Amino acid sequence: MMVALQRACLLVLFLEVFLPLPQHAQDPAMVHYIYQRFQVLESLKIVRKTMDPDGSWMKDAGGNSAKVYLLIGSRNNTVWEFANLRTFMEDSTKPGPRKLVLPLSWQGSGQVIYKSFLFFHNQGTSNEIIKYNLQKKTVEDRMLLPGGAGRAPIYQHSLSTYIDLAVDEHGLWAIHSGPGTQGHLVLTKIEPDTLGIEHSWETPCRNQDAEASFLLCGVLYVVYSFSGQGPHRITCVYDPLGTVREEHLPNLFFPKRPRSHSMIHYNPRDKQLYAWNEGNQIIYKLQTKKRLPLE
Ligand SMILES: *[C@@H]1O[C@H](CO)[C@@H](O)[C@H](O)[C@H]1NC(C)=O
Protein backbone atom coordinates (compact mmCIF):
# COMPACT_ATOMS: atom_id res chain seq x y z
CA MET A 1 0.00 0.00 0.00
CA MET A 2 2.70 2.43 1.02
CA VAL A 3 4.86 1.44 -1.93
CA ALA A 4 2.10 2.18 -4.42
CA LEU A 5 1.54 5.59 -2.85
CA GLN A 6 5.23 6.23 -2.88
CA ARG A 7 5.40 5.88 -6.65
CA ALA A 8 2.34 8.03 -7.22
CA CYS A 9 3.88 10.83 -5.23
CA LEU A 10 5.58 13.25 -7.57
CA LEU A 11 6.15 16.41 -5.65
CA VAL A 12 8.99 17.68 -3.59
CA LEU A 13 9.61 21.07 -2.15
CA PHE A 14 11.44 23.14 -4.65
CA LEU A 15 14.61 24.54 -3.21
CA GLU A 16 13.33 28.03 -2.89
CA VAL A 17 15.90 29.21 -0.44
CA PHE A 18 19.28 27.81 0.29
CA LEU A 19 21.57 28.80 3.04
CA PRO A 20 24.60 29.73 0.97
CA LEU A 21 27.60 27.79 2.11
CA PRO A 22 30.43 30.07 3.29
CA GLN A 23 32.88 28.67 0.74
CA HIS A 24 30.46 29.77 -1.98
CA ALA A 25 30.40 33.38 -0.83
CA GLN A 26 32.28 34.56 -3.91
CA ASP A 27 30.39 32.28 -6.21
CA PRO A 28 28.27 33.99 -8.91
CA ALA A 29 25.51 31.58 -7.91
CA MET A 30 25.22 33.59 -4.69
CA VAL A 31 23.22 36.21 -6.56
CA HIS A 32 20.85 33.48 -7.50
CA TYR A 33 20.48 32.38 -3.91
CA ILE A 34 19.66 35.90 -2.82
CA TYR A 35 17.16 36.28 -5.61
CA GLN A 36 15.52 33.06 -4.54
CA ARG A 37 15.31 34.28 -1.02
CA PHE A 38 13.59 37.41 -2.23
CA GLN A 39 11.02 35.20 -3.92
CA VAL A 40 10.13 33.68 -0.62
CA LEU A 41 9.65 37.09 0.96
CA GLU A 42 7.22 37.97 -1.80
CA SER A 43 5.35 34.75 -1.43
CA LEU A 44 4.08 35.58 2.03
CA LYS A 45 0.51 36.75 2.04
CA ILE A 46 -1.33 37.87 5.14
CA VAL A 47 -4.96 37.23 4.39
CA ARG A 48 -6.58 38.19 7.67
CA LYS A 49 -5.86 39.32 11.19
CA THR A 50 -7.48 37.81 14.25
CA MET A 51 -6.29 38.96 17.65
CA ASP A 52 -5.69 35.57 19.24
CA PRO A 53 -2.04 34.45 19.23
CA ASP A 54 -3.16 30.83 18.86
CA GLY A 55 -5.47 29.22 16.38
CA SER A 56 -5.69 27.42 13.08
CA TRP A 57 -7.26 28.00 9.72
CA MET A 58 -7.62 25.76 6.72
CA LYS A 59 -9.43 24.52 3.68
CA ASP A 60 -10.46 20.92 3.24
CA ALA A 61 -7.19 19.21 2.34
CA GLY A 62 -8.91 16.30 0.64
CA GLY A 63 -12.01 17.65 -1.10
CA ASN A 64 -12.89 20.28 -3.69
CA SER A 65 -14.69 22.74 -1.44
CA ALA A 66 -13.71 26.43 -1.55
CA LYS A 67 -14.79 26.85 2.07
CA VAL A 68 -12.37 28.28 4.61
CA TYR A 69 -12.51 27.34 8.28
CA LEU A 70 -11.29 29.42 11.19
CA LEU A 71 -10.67 27.96 14.65
CA ILE A 72 -9.71 30.72 17.05
CA GLY A 73 -7.75 30.00 20.24
CA SER A 74 -6.07 26.93 21.57
CA ARG A 75 -9.19 25.55 23.33
CA ASN A 76 -12.66 26.12 22.03
CA ASN A 77 -15.59 24.44 20.31
CA THR A 78 -16.60 27.17 17.84
CA VAL A 79 -15.70 26.74 14.19
CA TRP A 80 -16.31 29.58 11.69
CA GLU A 81 -17.05 28.53 8.14
CA PHE A 82 -16.57 31.05 5.30
CA ALA A 83 -17.87 30.49 1.76
CA ASN A 84 -14.46 31.06 0.19
CA LEU A 85 -11.13 32.83 0.62
CA ARG A 86 -12.56 36.14 -0.54
CA THR A 87 -15.26 36.29 2.08
CA PHE A 88 -12.65 35.18 4.60
CA MET A 89 -10.41 38.12 3.67
CA GLU A 90 -13.16 40.74 3.44
CA ASP A 91 -14.73 40.49 6.82
CA SER A 92 -17.63 42.82 6.02
CA THR A 93 -18.87 41.05 2.91
CA LYS A 94 -22.11 39.16 2.98
CA PRO A 95 -22.87 36.39 3.60
CA GLY A 96 -21.09 36.28 6.92
CA PRO A 97 -19.48 33.14 8.28
CA ARG A 98 -21.52 30.20 9.46
CA LYS A 99 -20.99 29.27 13.08
CA LEU A 100 -20.59 25.60 13.92
CA VAL A 101 -20.54 24.60 17.55
CA LEU A 102 -18.85 21.27 18.16
CA PRO A 103 -20.09 18.95 20.93
CA LEU A 104 -16.47 18.76 22.17
CA SER A 105 -13.61 21.24 22.38
CA TRP A 106 -10.29 21.02 20.62
CA GLN A 107 -6.89 21.32 22.26
CA GLY A 108 -4.02 23.16 20.55
CA SER A 109 -3.83 24.18 16.92
CA GLY A 110 -3.21 20.88 15.17
CA GLN A 111 -6.64 20.44 13.55
CA VAL A 112 -7.10 19.40 9.93
CA ILE A 113 -10.08 18.98 7.61
CA TYR A 114 -9.92 16.01 5.29
CA LYS A 115 -12.76 14.94 2.98
CA SER A 116 -15.40 16.87 4.95
CA PHE A 117 -14.26 15.57 8.32
CA LEU A 118 -12.65 17.74 10.96
CA PHE A 119 -9.99 15.85 12.91
CA PHE A 120 -8.97 17.31 16.25
CA HIS A 121 -7.37 16.51 19.58
CA ASN A 122 -10.17 16.27 22.14
CA GLN A 123 -9.47 18.72 24.95
CA GLY A 124 -9.29 17.13 28.41
CA THR A 125 -7.94 13.86 27.04
CA SER A 126 -4.26 13.19 26.56
CA ASN A 127 -4.47 11.30 23.29
CA GLU A 128 -7.98 11.14 21.85
CA ILE A 129 -8.58 12.23 18.27
CA ILE A 130 -12.11 13.06 17.18
CA LYS A 131 -13.34 12.64 13.63
CA TYR A 132 -16.23 15.08 13.21
CA ASN A 133 -18.58 14.98 10.25
CA LEU A 134 -18.97 18.62 9.12
CA GLN A 135 -21.96 17.83 6.90
CA LYS A 136 -24.01 15.78 9.35
CA LYS A 137 -22.63 17.75 12.34
CA THR A 138 -22.00 14.62 14.33
CA VAL A 139 -19.03 12.85 15.81
CA GLU A 140 -18.27 10.17 13.25
CA ASP A 141 -15.58 8.28 15.09
CA ARG A 142 -12.82 8.59 17.67
CA MET A 143 -9.49 6.94 18.36
CA LEU A 144 -6.69 6.87 20.92
CA LEU A 145 -3.20 7.55 19.65
CA PRO A 146 -0.90 5.01 21.30
CA GLY A 147 2.71 5.19 22.41
CA GLY A 148 2.72 8.03 24.90
CA ALA A 149 1.05 10.53 22.58
CA GLY A 150 -0.25 13.70 24.16
CA ARG A 151 1.80 13.55 27.36
CA ALA A 152 3.91 16.55 26.44
CA PRO A 153 3.69 19.54 24.10
CA ILE A 154 5.22 18.65 20.75
CA TYR A 155 6.93 21.94 20.03
CA GLN A 156 8.84 24.04 22.53
CA HIS A 157 7.45 27.28 21.05
CA SER A 158 3.82 26.20 20.70
CA LEU A 159 2.96 24.94 24.14
CA SER A 160 -0.76 24.31 23.75
CA THR A 161 -0.39 21.74 20.96
CA TYR A 162 0.04 18.18 22.20
CA ILE A 163 -1.00 16.44 19.00
CA ASP A 164 -0.49 18.00 15.59
CA LEU A 165 -2.33 16.55 12.61
CA ALA A 166 -1.29 16.84 8.99
CA VAL A 167 -2.56 15.94 5.55
CA ASP A 168 -0.40 15.46 2.47
CA GLU A 169 -0.51 13.50 -0.77
CA HIS A 170 -0.40 10.26 1.26
CA GLY A 171 -3.30 11.08 3.58
CA LEU A 172 -3.57 11.67 7.30
CA TRP A 173 -0.71 11.87 9.80
CA ALA A 174 -0.19 12.78 13.45
CA ILE A 175 2.91 14.31 14.99
CA HIS A 176 3.25 13.82 18.73
CA SER A 177 5.51 13.03 21.64
CA GLY A 178 6.50 9.50 22.53
CA PRO A 179 7.53 7.46 25.54
CA GLY A 180 11.15 7.98 26.47
CA THR A 181 12.08 9.45 23.15
CA GLN A 182 13.76 12.34 24.96
CA GLY A 183 12.05 15.16 23.20
CA HIS A 184 12.05 13.58 19.77
CA LEU A 185 8.96 13.91 17.61
CA VAL A 186 7.01 10.78 16.74
CA LEU A 187 5.25 10.54 13.40
CA THR A 188 2.19 8.29 13.01
CA LYS A 189 0.33 7.47 9.83
CA ILE A 190 -3.42 7.11 10.37
CA GLU A 191 -5.92 5.43 8.09
CA PRO A 192 -8.62 8.13 7.85
CA ASP A 193 -11.59 5.82 7.13
CA THR A 194 -11.09 3.29 9.91
CA LEU A 195 -8.86 5.43 12.15
CA GLY A 196 -6.44 2.53 12.34
CA ILE A 197 -2.73 3.13 12.88
CA GLU A 198 -0.69 2.27 9.80
CA HIS A 199 2.74 2.88 11.25
CA SER A 200 4.69 4.99 13.76
CA TRP A 201 8.23 6.29 13.43
CA GLU A 202 10.47 7.85 16.04
CA THR A 203 12.04 10.73 14.19
CA PRO A 204 15.43 12.33 14.84
CA CYS A 205 13.70 15.75 15.00
CA ARG A 206 13.84 17.38 18.41
CA ASN A 207 11.17 19.30 20.23
CA GLN A 208 13.67 21.89 21.46
CA ASP A 209 13.31 25.21 19.56
CA ALA A 210 10.63 23.65 17.32
CA GLU A 211 7.51 25.66 16.61
CA ALA A 212 5.56 23.80 13.92
CA SER A 213 5.80 21.08 11.31
CA PHE A 214 4.05 19.84 8.21
CA LEU A 215 4.06 16.86 5.87
CA LEU A 216 4.60 17.23 2.15
CA CYS A 217 4.65 14.21 -0.12
CA GLY A 218 5.39 11.81 2.72
CA VAL A 219 8.20 13.91 4.19
CA LEU A 220 8.09 15.64 7.57
CA TYR A 221 9.46 19.20 7.69
CA VAL A 222 10.01 20.68 11.14
CA VAL A 223 10.28 24.45 11.55
CA TYR A 224 12.63 25.77 14.23
CA SER A 225 13.46 29.18 15.59
CA PHE A 226 15.86 30.18 18.30
CA SER A 227 13.87 31.42 21.34
CA GLY A 228 10.69 31.59 19.26
CA GLN A 229 11.84 34.58 17.22
CA GLY A 230 13.08 34.52 13.67
CA PRO A 231 14.63 33.33 11.55
CA HIS A 232 12.17 30.49 11.21
CA ARG A 233 13.74 27.72 9.26
CA ILE A 234 13.41 24.04 8.50
CA THR A 235 16.41 22.36 10.00
CA CYS A 236 15.05 18.87 10.46
CA VAL A 237 13.55 16.83 7.66
CA TYR A 238 12.42 13.24 8.13
CA ASP A 239 11.64 10.99 5.23
CA PRO A 240 10.05 7.79 6.60
CA LEU A 241 9.28 6.23 3.23
CA GLY A 242 12.70 7.00 1.78
CA THR A 243 11.24 8.79 -1.23
CA VAL A 244 13.54 11.80 -1.33
CA ARG A 245 17.25 11.78 -1.83
CA GLU A 246 19.40 13.60 0.67
CA GLU A 247 20.54 16.24 -1.82
CA HIS A 248 16.93 17.15 -2.61
CA LEU A 249 15.99 17.96 0.94
CA PRO A 250 15.53 21.70 1.30
CA ASN A 251 16.91 24.10 3.82
CA LEU A 252 14.01 26.48 3.69
CA PHE A 253 13.73 29.83 5.43
CA PHE A 254 10.49 31.51 6.24
CA PRO A 255 10.11 35.27 5.97
CA LYS A 256 10.93 37.04 9.19
CA ARG A 257 8.07 37.09 11.66
CA PRO A 258 8.17 38.56 15.16
CA ARG A 259 6.75 35.46 16.84
CA SER A 260 6.75 31.73 16.43
CA HIS A 261 3.96 30.13 14.42
CA SER A 262 0.97 28.63 16.16
CA MET A 263 0.57 26.26 13.20
CA ILE A 264 1.89 25.66 9.68
CA HIS A 265 -0.07 23.14 7.62
CA TYR A 266 0.39 22.09 4.03
CA ASN A 267 -2.62 21.66 1.76
CA PRO A 268 -1.89 19.15 -1.03
CA ARG A 269 -4.77 20.49 -3.16
CA ASP A 270 -3.37 23.97 -3.71
CA LYS A 271 0.18 23.21 -2.57
CA GLN A 272 0.32 26.12 -0.16
CA LEU A 273 1.15 26.40 3.50
CA TYR A 274 -1.54 27.79 5.78
CA ALA A 275 -0.02 29.39 8.84
CA TRP A 276 -0.96 31.36 11.95
CA ASN A 277 1.54 33.85 13.33
CA GLU A 278 0.85 36.49 15.99
CA GLY A 279 -2.85 36.50 15.13
CA ASN A 280 -2.19 36.73 11.39
CA GLN A 281 -3.53 34.14 9.01
CA ILE A 282 -0.82 33.65 6.42
CA ILE A 283 -0.39 31.76 3.18
CA TYR A 284 3.10 30.74 2.13
CA LYS A 285 3.23 29.85 -1.52
CA LEU A 286 5.52 26.95 -2.25
CA GLN A 287 7.20 25.99 -5.42
CA THR A 288 7.09 22.30 -6.04
CA LYS A 289 8.49 20.30 -8.89
CA LYS A 290 8.05 16.87 -10.30
CA ARG A 291 10.39 14.43 -8.72
CA LEU A 292 12.56 12.31 -10.92
CA PRO A 293 12.11 8.61 -10.25
CA LEU A 294 14.78 7.05 -8.08
CA GLU A 295 17.11 4.79 -9.98
C1 LIG B 1 -14.70 30.50 21.86
O1 LIG B 1 -14.75 31.14 20.61
C2 LIG B 1 -15.79 32.12 20.52
C3 LIG B 1 -15.84 32.64 19.10
O2 LIG B 1 -14.74 32.32 18.31
C4 LIG B 1 -15.53 33.21 21.52
O3 LIG B 1 -16.54 34.18 21.46
C5 LIG B 1 -15.44 32.63 22.91
O4 LIG B 1 -15.08 33.62 23.83
C6 LIG B 1 -14.41 31.50 22.95
N1 LIG B 1 -14.44 30.85 24.25
C7 LIG B 1 -13.37 30.66 24.98
C8 LIG B 1 -13.58 29.93 26.26
O5 LIG B 1 -12.26 31.04 24.64
From TrEMBL:
Name this protein carries in UniProt: Olfml1 protein
InterPro entries, per database record: Olfac-like_dom (IPR003112), Olfactomedin-like_domain (IPR050605), Quino_amine_DH_bsu (IPR011044)
Subcellular location: Secreted
SMART domains xrefs: OLF (SM00284)
A single GO cellular-component term on record: extracellular space
Domain Olfactomedin-like positions: 8-290
Biological process per Gene Ontology, one example term: signal transduction
A Pfam family reported for this protein in Swiss-Prot or TrEMBL: OLF
Range of residues in the leader sequence: 1-25
Organism lineage: Eukaryota, Metazoa, Chordata, Craniata, Vertebrata
UniProt keyword annotations, A-Z: Secreted, Signal
Superkingdom of source: Eukaryota
